[in-house]
Amino acid sequence: MKVVVTGGSGLAGSAVVWHLLHAGFDVVSIDRVEPQYPLAEFRFVDCTDLGQVYGACHDAEAIAHLAAIPRPIHHTPDQVFGANIMATFNIFEAAAALRIPRVVYVSSMSVLGLPFSYKPIRLSYLPIDEAHPKAPQDAYALSKTLGEDIALAFVRRMAGALSVVSLRFPWIHTPATFKSVLTPLWDDPAGGATNLWGYIDTRDVARACRLALEADISGHEAFYISARNTFMKTDSASLAQRYYPQAKARSRLAGNQSLFDTSKAKARLGYEAQLSWEDYEWT
Length: 283
Ligand SMILES: NC(=O)c1ccc[n+]([C@@H]2O[C@H](COP(=O)([O-])OP(=O)(O)OC[C@H]3O[C@@H](n4cnc5c(N)ncnc54)[C@H](O)[C@@H]3O)[C@@H](O)[C@H]2O)c1
Description:
Rossmann fold; seven-stranded parallel β-sheet; two-stranded parallel ribbon; 9 helices; 17% strand; binds nicotinamide-adenine-dinucleotide
């Protein structure tokens, strides 16, 4: 299968490119910046330009769409919203025009409104599953939420000729960034609360994207995808009770179990996290 990976030079995109190549896919990586390590065929493409997207995707059989400004903190809100929405629209417009049957849209747990909301987010229950209400406030969360709506609109327009899998990831890390960014939060649980102490290893992101490319799915389906645990050593039940006391407990939380319920992803995609910070080399 020939797959175009957008954002292939980025943190998650480069892991997706590597994984798909090793799984035997024919991969074209597109990005507006060059990859640090060229792994696959690469094309300079700004996804906010529809003509460039058409050119890059003309012979693709699937697209994994990761290109985005991944947080609303280093760009102005209009830059984040404008770039993310335009890129996502163009990917789906090209998929429709070129009759590309499968798009994997990399969404985010930010559809909940977390972690960049202006006002506190009231969660209805924990662990979070796909039925939990979405509540975006900031430009990034809004762009990811509307990105899923764009996906659904194109699925509707293509009436059976396009299926889309949206993957809602928590904070994405490598072992190195886990150690530098997340271990300091072991002693600062409040610092991780708006992320629901959630994380995922880039290699599990890549595996989830491959499973989503291969899955027998029609229409549009969204999934929460996460590591099996939080990035904390503290029990999840006590974190939930302390920082989200209004959220109803949907089930008993064991140890540092993730606050994202990935059972839909297990049932429909065959996804189960393989990597945990508890298995990283700590020397
Ligand atoms: N980093 C996280 O914790 C996190 C969590 C959940 C979801 N996500 C999503 O995962 C995806 C990848 O995030 P990341 O952390 O690897 O970010 P990243 O910034 O490392 O990679 C994003 C890549 O997209 C490229 N890009 C951005 N806009 C583009 C455009 N218009 N045209 C072409 N290329 C463009 C950038 O140059 C970059 O290489 C994003 O869609 C992000 O929203 C990230």
